[in-house]
Each structure stands twice: as structure tokens, then as C-alpha cells.
Amino acid sequence: MLLVEDVAKRFKSGGGAVDAVDGVSFEIATGTFAAIVGRSGSGKSTLLGLLGALDSPSAGKITMDDVDVTALSPRGQVAYRRDRIGFVFQQYHLIPDLTAVQNVMLPMEFAGRRTAERRARAVELLDRVGLTGGKQTRLPGRLSGGEQQRVSVARALANRPSLILADEPTGNLDSRNGKRIITLLREFAGGGTTVVVVTHDRGLASRADLTLAMNDGRIVHRKSKT
Ligand SMILES: Nc1ncnc2c1ncn2[C@@H]1O[C@H](COP(=O)(O)OP(=O)(O)O)[C@@H](O)[C@H]1O
Ligand SMILES: [Mg+2]
């Protein structure tokens, strides 16, 4: 269970301040495929960053299963991100001079896994996301956008996260490849894994179990499929 209670994030800028997230509360049951929608500037990325402990809220509390995310030390945040969270970004954020398989191995190296285990799991994950054979040993620059995003999904799964956070993962893809990525992310939700996708594609959002709509830092609408 992901529990968000009265969470706010204020950024100071120049003389003023922006309430990027302005007092949001919601819960997402474990295994849910959830979408966050809303126009640009509504606070979606900021909220996702708070859920993933990339940043700390100005107020409120976030609890992920048994972890009070908002009480973590900076070190605790690093371990939480490494062990519990898988991130997928619009721009893929792959390391350009590592091959696909090496990119997927990297989070496992940070988690202290042995090389043979890392390589075997990276190959298995790349197979699962549909990047097979010789493409696995290519550099990101020699893969299409859709293929690079599949590598980043495999990387996000490397340490068996309980929460996958994807910020506009289809933003740079054509609709066919976008659909494939959403289908893939959907497949990984369930069991102990929750997936939260930020998207402003209403069609993609309609495939989610739960949709949260944001406006001006607030959740203005919540729609559950069940
Ligand atoms: N690091 C930051 N410093 C100052 N303002 C920020 C920062 N990050 C985001 N904001 C502001 O917070 C608001 C929400 O931004 P963001 O979370 O990126 O929205 P979205 O992802 O929905 O487009 C915007 O007004 C944005 O300009
Ligand atoms: Mg954003």
C-alpha cells in the first residue's frame, strides 16, 4: 500500500514561491496500475519525485508498505530508491557508452549482486521486454526510441522494485510504440508491484485501474475501474 497524507511541496523561486504539490492525500493498493494525468505544470513530476524519494516534501507523510519515506535520511533515501523503486523517464536516461545489457546490469551492481547473476538477469529482463539477440549488446544510440525505452523498463525492473514510477514514458514515442510500453508496464503491475505512470495521454490513462487527475498541485479527480 502506498499512502500519501497531506503532502505538499513548495519551491522558492526568486522572491516568490510555487506550491507545486499543494496538499494531496490518496492511497494506492499494492499491485495497482495507476495513472496520474493533468496538464503541464500541474505538479505530476514533482509528486512522482516525492513518491520515489528523489526529493523530500515540505509537509505531509508518504508511507510505502512498511517504510515511512518522509522520515528517511539521505542515505536511507538512496537505499530506498535503489532497492524499492524503478524509475522510467521520458528521455530514457540510459548511459550512452554502456550497452543495453550493461545498462540493465548497473542497478544490480549498486545493489551488490554478483556479475554472473547480474548478466543472467539482465538478459532475461531484456528478453521479457522484447529486446532480443544482438540488440542486447548495442549501445543506446544504435537503438530506436521505443527500444531504448524498453531497455529503461528492463533496468527499472532489475532490483525487483515494489514501486515502478514512470514519468511520461511514452512522451517521445509514436502511438504504436507508446502502446507497447504501456502494455509492458501494465504487465508488471500486480502481485507485490505497484506501477504509477504519469501521462497526458487520455487513451493510455483509460487503461489504468486507478486514475488520479491533478490540477494546480491538487488531486481534483479520482476514478477507479473496480
Ligand atoms: N525545482 C523546481 N524549482 C522551482 N519550481 C519548480 C521546480 N520543479 C517544478 N517547479 C514548478 O512546479 C510546478 C509543477 O511542476 P511539475 O511537477 O514539473 O509539473 P508537471 O510534471 O505536471 O508538468 C510548475 O509550476 C513548475 O514550474
Ligand atoms: Mg512533468
TrEMBL record:
Domain annotation ABC transporter: ranges: 2-226
Entry GO MF terms: ATP binding; ATP hydrolysis activity; transmembrane transporter activity
Recorded GO CC terms: membrane protein complex; plasma membrane
Keywords on record: ATP-binding, Nucleotide-binding, Transport
Tagged with keyword Cell inner membrane: no
Segments forming a coiled coil: none
Xref: PROSITE patterns: ABC_TRANSPORTER_1 (PS00211), ABC_TRANSPORTER_2 (PS50893)
Keyword Protease: no
InterPro entries recorded: AAA+_ATPase, ABC_transporter-like_ATP-bd, ABC_transporter-like_CS, ABC_transpr_LolD-like, MacB-like_ATP-bd, P-loop_NTPase
Annotated family: Belongs to the ABC transporter superfamily.
Record's protein name: Putative ABC transport system ATP-binding protein
Species this chain originates from: Stackebrandtia albiflava
